[in-house]
Amino acid sequence: MNQRKIVIAPDSFKESLTALEAAQAIQEGLMHVWPDADYELVPMADGGEGTVRSLVDALHGEIVEQTVTGPLGSPLTAFYGLVNNGRTAVIEMAAASGIEHTKPEERDPLTATTYGVGELIRSAMDHGARHMILGLGGSATNDGGCGMAQALGARLLDRDGNELPRGGAALIHLNSIDLTKLDLRIKNVRFEAATDVTNPLTGTKGASAVFGPQKGASRHDVAELDQALKRFAEIVMRDFNTEIDQVSGSGAAGGLGAGTLFFLNSSIRPGINLVIKESGLERKLSNAALVITGEGKIDGQTIYGKTPIGVARCAKQQHIPVIALAGALADGCDAVYAHGIDALFSIVPGAIPLDQALKDARANLIRTSSNIARVWQLAHK
Predict the structure, then answer these.
(1) What whole-number distance in Å separates Cα of residue 120 and Cα of residue 94?
(2) Confidence of residue 173 (pLDDT cuts 50, 70, 90)
């Protein structure tokens, strides 16, 4: 592998290593065998948690902290990333409105709001961003992105012309939407929403029915929230002739997908595709002899838009072999072989407690990567 190029493009290993830290550990292990190889580290993500950090690390951007309104109305310190010399902002909605900001006993999707997401968007526009990637996932909310819109100047009115309170349940009383005070800068920003969710806004596969219970919604709450989002979609269609209900991905993040479509004129795209594009992975793969990717767990669901498969498909366009590493290999993991991954390895050395596996993730990555290089070298003698 002397003077050969190796691209290392993992996702984060949740609760133990960021994507960059994982990539650095893999490189360290490979260098035990190939000290003179040309290494290209490309931290990756799929649009969910870790997307901001991955793109900031990959593109040498910066993290901006901002005090915003949390999902239940209390202030919290959130963040977003600025890359491409500040022209592009990368925002994870969960940083402002994520379920991790609520205790299990406090969760209330009837009143939870995405107002803080709108505040992050406003801050990013204040910093001059004219392109925004919005990672949709991990939400505590079910308000169709209407809280986000309220933070950006939209007014949601009932039959008497009164503004609705924040939260998804209030949308059942929606009668009109006033966009006359919506931040004018939005028209000059290109928004892209990133998600691996294809659920529509409402119905049995919609935001409320599928994701509401994990946010604390009872069966009655789910029905109420679904009707409220249906009302929102009906008003948007009636007054603006815009379909947001049955669009693929509109149900992501409690319907925030639909809100970005309507209020921000965004597109909705698979998160891994956006990260691949923004990170320049395709260009960085040029002339590579090997690609190594991975994430915390690889199973049968990995083929549905997760980072290792996105990286592998990109690599296969250039006929580059791909090895994937994971902290855990679970049921159905063999499915990845049909999607561009050539070999799959667990980094865990044996049956150990989860907390120990998380603590030792870096050392385990180094050791496994070193062993992979030794086997590769043996096979190519």
Answers:
(1) 11
(2) very high
Residue 310 identity (one-letter amino acid): G
Q: How far apart are CA 324 and CA 336, in angstroms?
A: 9
| Cβ-based burial of 306 (10 A; exposed 0-12, middle 13-18, buried ≥19) | buried
CB 110 within 8 A of CB 173: no
User: What's the sign of the alpha-carbon dihedral 287, 290, 295, 300?
Assistant: positive
Specify the pTM.
0.89
φ, ψ for residue 123, nearest 5 deg? -65, -40
> C-alpha distances in angstroms, 38 versus 10, 29, 35, 145, 196?
17, 14, 9, 45, 32
7 contacts: CB under 8 Å, gap ≥ 6: 40, 42, 281, 284, 285, 288, 290, 291, 292, 315, 320
Question: Residue 43 in contact with residue 307, Cβ under 8 Å?
Answer: no
Q: Are 201 and 251 in contact (CB under 8 A)?
A: yes
pLDDT in tens, 236-292: 999 999 999 999 999 999 999 999 999 999 999 999 999 999 999 999 999 999 999
Q: What are the chain's domains?
A: 5-42+280-379 (3.40.50.10350), 51-272 (3.90.1510.10)
Per-position DSSP letters for 145-165, written without gaps between them: THHHHHHTT-EEE-TTSPBPP
- Is 323 strand, coil or helix? strand
Q: In angstroms, rounded to a whole number, what is the distance separating the alpha carbons of residues 196 and 56? A: 21
Q: Give the lowest-confidence range in 135-139, 331-335, 346-350.
A: 346-350
